[in-house]
């Protein structure tokens, strides 16, 4: 009886050992692309990415940073998580901003920022801030636009609207529709 019990326990230990060994040494199957998958293939992945561009005079044109980024070579597309950026202006303080996600394409001339997007600029009379959920930027012309709800705040004013267009170099922002707000001239610097 003792001999049969020992054989049974030994056989069970052998089976369990074989199962553990097969799981430990087995290679995971190679991922395969199916016909129903869409989108470009990932070409590169980066952590703590910082990119910048200089203008013809050698001055900073724009700078972007992100803790993680992915590049899709076939589409010429970068995707950024939690991007932070600065877009320099010729005769004013730079516009700075942040978002939950961002992407650039067209040789990094076009960008889309999504999720808690904030663009702001320090001006002599105080900081101007535009907040929304999505913004499309054209970097060479310093043009931004959105059709989403926006909030524009500055010294002495707080305005809400649906959609906006911004010519960043000109420090000009036009609100599209359903514009409401509050203006307090007492808070506006002289």
CATH class, named: Mainly Beta
Oligomer: single chain
| Residues in β-strands, percent | over 45%
Q: Output the CATH homologous superfamily.
A: Lipopolysaccharide (LPS) transport protein A like domain
CATH architecture: Sandwich
Q: Can I get a quick summary?
A:
This protein is mainly beta. Helix content is 13%, strand content 55%.
Spell out the blueprint of helices and strands.
Layout (H helix, E strand, L loop, with lengths): L1 H24 L18 E11 L5 E13 L4 E5 L2 E4 L7 E4 L2 E5 L4 E14 L2 E13 L4 E12 L2 E11 L4 E12 L7
Can you give keywords for this protein?
single chain; 190 residues; mainly beta; lipopolysaccharide transport protein A fold; 6-stranded antiparallel β-barrel; 1 helix; 11 strands; globular
In words, what does this structure look like?
This protein is mostly beta strands and 190 residues long. It has a single domain, classed as Sandwich (lipopolysaccharide transport protein A fold), CATH 2.60.450.10. It has one helix spanning 2-25; strands spanning 44-54, 60-72, 77-81, 84-87, 95-98, 101-105, 110-123, 126-138, 143-154, 157-167, 172-183. A 6-stranded antiparallel beta barrel has the order 2-3-6-7-5-4. Strand 2 (60-72) and strand 3 form a beta hairpin. It is globular. Residues 23-32 have low confidence and may be disordered.
